[in-house]
Fold this protein.
Amino acid sequence: MGRILDGKAVAAELRGRVAVAAGVFASRAGRKAGLEVVLVGEDPASQVYVRNKARACEEAGLRGVVHRLPADTTQGALLELVHGLGARDDVDGILVQLPLPKHLHEDAVLQAVPADKDVDGFHLLNAGALFTGREGLVPCTPTGCMRLLDHAGGDLSGARAVVVGRSNIVGKPMAMLLLARHATVTLAHSRTRDLGLLCATADILIAAVGRAGLVRGDWVRPGAIVIDVGINRDAQGKLVGDVAFDEAAERAAWITPVPGGVGPMTIACLLENTLRAAWRRKGLPPGELTL
Ligand code: NAD
């Protein structure tokens, strides 16, 4: 039976370190580091996510503000808000909660967030920085996965990593981060042939698809590290990942549970990104930010 990669515990530790560094920032800058979250519409899952994000900010000594806009908000009004937040000196991070209502142009809104405040790492400059190995803000979920892999230990260099899912938010940046750590990365997706056989070659298996139980036990190479990013509801309405957990846990060396794996890490890394953005914007010495 594999060991559980406890995202809640690793996230709590990271949040503790962010809280200490947030205190240092506040004393140097004379104000708290601040994240502004923009929510458009009434999507119930999004409401929960933004509430959790703002609460996590406050608990870590950051300022977390939520802007709630009605579902029929126009593109112009939303852009005006984002531009306004972009111009404010006391705003270090801006996060536009996705998905946006259908009539809004998601990409235009995301690109309106200044790159140095783009704590989600979705701006083209940050995506390009990640692709070319430069300093930038990196998407929170893959960053959280990397921290979990580091917690599990083991050398990523030369390891065979298979990432299932190629979204801009999770799969692609995940592949880039693994590559930067010298893993040999295969990015799989809905058209990949013989997915099970491919997964069974992986020392590190990341599932980021959104299909309950897609990854079966015999897709897991004995001794692999399995990170399950998926969030799904099963037929009973229970929260489950993309990996058939009980089967996979029999073979994996380490495996993340859902819930309690990647989810808490995503929020902790959002706090970390906000603090990093604030630190950089204030011009504080990078070496003195220890996270
Ligand atoms: P997405 O829908 O944008 O991308 C899904 C990817 O899966 C696509 O690249 C597609 O090619 C691939 N795919 C679809 N069906 C497949 C199949 N049968 N076999 C192989 N690949 C297949 O989703 P996303 O935004 O990347 O999110 C993926 C999952 O991760 C979702 O369940 C989402 O809720 C979850 N998620 C969790 C967190 C977290 O914090 N835990 C954060 C972001 C996303």
